[in-house]
Amino acid sequence: MRRLYLIGFPLLMAFDTLAQLCFKYAGDAALPVEANSAWLLRVLSQPWVYGAMLGYVGAFFTWMSLLRHAPIGPAFAASHLEVISVLLLSAWLLHEPLTLHHLIGAVLIVAGIICLGRAEADDPHAATEPSP
User: Fold this and answer.
1) φ, ψ for residue 99 (rounded to 5)?
2) Is the N end or the C end of the chain the one with fewer CB atoms within 10 Å?
3) What is the band of 6 on the pLDDT scale with cuts at 50, 70, 90?
4) Among 121, 107, 108, residue whose Cα is nearest residue 70
């Protein structure tokens, strides 16, 4: 079970991060926005759009597999670690600002995930496996 978490959550974070970063790159290529078919074809010709779709499909199937075995509270919280990975990778790859407020928010997200994980570990009812 632990191996599922050690592989599943980083995989989910990787797929979610891929999708968000690809959407950021696709958004840059979509400018200027126009309401016509030429703009739509221009957007659909960008590989970033398909990277985002791949990321969302991968995240969906990974999330469904994790939900089958992981407690919902910590799993839902841990699934939001991609906010931190996107923040850090956007600062590095896209040169977006990384402010003190961003870092405080990231620390609070991690603290919330730790609190939920510890609360779940202390809950005697959480140890039971869900039936398939």
Assistant:
1) -100, 175
2) C
3) confident
4) 121
